[in-house]
Amino acid sequence: MPLIIPVRGFTPEIGSDCFLAENATVIGDVVIGNECSIWFNTVIRGDVNSIRIGNRVNIQDGSVLHTLYEKSTIEIGNDVSVGHNVTLHGCKIHDYALIGMGAVVMDDAVVGEGSIVAAGSVVLSKTVIPPGELWGGAPARFIKPVDPEQSKTLNQRIAHNYLMYSRWYSEK
To answer: Which of 67, 95, 125, 157 could form a Cys-Cys staple with 90, CB 3.0–4.6 A?
Structure first.
């Protein structure tokens, strides 16, 4: 059973048809949309500020989402994939974006629609990644444009695959 903890008068809200792994932790001012999957050892800590997650978002194993007290929030759009062991801290991730494994996205950074942050990248505070771009490195820098339709198709496929994977855990 996932650990869902109310704090400071906020109780996490979970949308319909979501999968939360038995050791996922969701705390405080968190709203998760429909058909999302929150995987093993993930921590979504809305204790100091709000975290809003759209529909069909998958947050993979070992990821941590947190914010700054009274300064930053997290907003994640629809059909977003957050890879294994990602840290999102007070940032905004637009629809169809992909955050690669082990990446870090810091406070007030913005990842545009359909953009990709390569595995292991560090997106520094206040960085704005425009829509449809691939960024990578530490610190993350522009690598190349990404075809918007290919990106949308890829990220919708990943989001739908993770929805399928999550349903395996409810099979008897």
So the answer is: 67
Cα within 13 Å of Cα(109), Cβ side: 24
Q: Which of 40, 121, 124, 138 is nearest to 89 (CA)?
A: 124
Cα distance between residue 103 and residue 121, in whole Å: 5
Closest CA to 159 of 96, 102, 111: 96
CA–CA separation, 4 vs 107, rounded Å?
Answer: 24
Using the predicted structure, report yes or no on whether residue 17 has a pLDDT greater than 70. yes
DSSP 31-47: EE-TT-EE-TT-EEEEE
* % pLDDT > 90, the chain: 88
Cα torsion through 163, 165, 169, 172, rounded to 10 = 100
Arithmetic mean of pLDDT over the chain: 95
- What length is written for the chain? 172
- Report which residue type is found at 149: E
- Does 172 have pLDDT greater than 70? no
Provide the sign of the torsion angle of the four alpha carbons 59, 60, 61, 64, taken in this order.
Answer: negative
